[in-house]
Design brief:
Blueprint lengths: L1 E3 L3 E5 L5 E3 L14 E5 L2 E5 L2 E5 L6 E2 L2 E2 H8 L7 E5 L5 H4 L15 E5 H7 L9 H9 L3 E4 L3 E3 L4 E5 L8 E6 L4 E4 L22 H17 L3 E3 L8 E6 L4 E6 L2 H6 L2
Parallel strand pairs: 6-9, 9-10, 10-11, 15-16
Antiparallel strand pairs: 1-5, 2-3, 2-4, 5-6, 7-8, 12-13, 13-14, 14-15, 16-17, 17-18
């Protein structure tokens, strides 16, 4: 079982500020030099515990964290989250891990990220990272720094350093009762990128990211996995079916959560 915890659509420019975007009334033409970005963390129920994959923007609505609200809509308390898997530490993926006051948003969870990603993010001044918050997260003792290029956190959560988007970006496989979920973070962020062969300028190593997208898509198809897409506003997850020169995309939605939305 998985739930998509959509935080909506934003525009982001060189200043790395995420501004809410309403498709019904806003126009991208009015925000020159920006990109449209959808933010969508995921929570998976696997082996009797809730696992969160990436943590969103950490924004609030009416003094309640957006990600806490979304979990509540799905009938899950933020206190029920036992593991938080972080693909990398860019603001839009990791800021929902800890508050500006240094309190973790998931007090009963263990957090996991690559050691190289953490040390890179906290060793420089960059608008892509919120250095102080990441340092606070480390001091809580809840953050585990992974050092192996590919290994397992436990019997049902596996990871691999993909690189590509950032030097130490990692992807995850989470096994539940009857499915295996693949989460590619920003190496495979949307269904629209499955069949596109391109080198993105925003990637640390665009060529490697492109090659990995193809490799992971092939694995998803051959092993009948469900791919989860963090930056897709129209597709939460999908199964892929490899044809001669492309992948057919079969959407998979968390229908239970959709029915609970107001």
């Amino acid at each position: 079982m998985f739930f998509a915890l959509s935080e909506g659509i934003y525009t982001v420019g060189l200043d790395k500020k995420f501004i809410p975007f309403d498709k019904k009334k806003d126009r991208i033409e009015d925000r020159k030099g920006t990109l449209l970005v959808h933010i969508q963390p995921f929570v998976i129920y696997a082996h009797h515990e809730w696992v969160l994959i990436d943590a969103g923007l950490g924004f609030q609505k009416e003094n309640i964290y957006h990600i806490h609200q979304n979990l509540e809509k799905a009938g899950i308390s933020f206190r029920d989250i036992k593991k938080v898997l972080l693909s990398h530490l860019h603001f839009d993926h990791a800021n929902g891990a800890i508050s500006d006051m240094g309190e973790t948003l998931f007090p009963n969870a263990e957090y996991f990220v690559q050691a190289g990603e953490y040390f890179h993010a906290t060793s420089q001044l960059s608008k892509s990272y919120k250095k102080e918050n990441l340092e606070h997260l480390y001091k809580t003792g809840q953050l585990h720094l992974l050092s192996e290029p590919h290994s397992s956190i436990n019997a049902y959560i596996h990871y691999e350093v993909s690189g590509g988007h950032t030097q130490h970006h990692q992807v995850f496989w989470v096994e539940s009762k009857d499915e295996v979920y693949f989460y590619g973070g920003d190496v495979l962020p949307s269904g629209g990128q499955v069949n596109r062969k391109f080198i993105a300028k925003y990637d640390y190593d665009g060529k490697k990211a492109m090659q990995d997208r193809i490799r992971y898509a092939q694995q998803i198809a051959s092993e009948n996995m469900i791919a989860l897409f963090y930056h897709s506003d129209s597709l939460q997850g999908a199964k892929l079916h490899q044809k001669q020169d492309y992948f057919e995309i079969e959407p998979v939605f968390d229908k239970e959560f959709i029915l609970k939305k107001p």
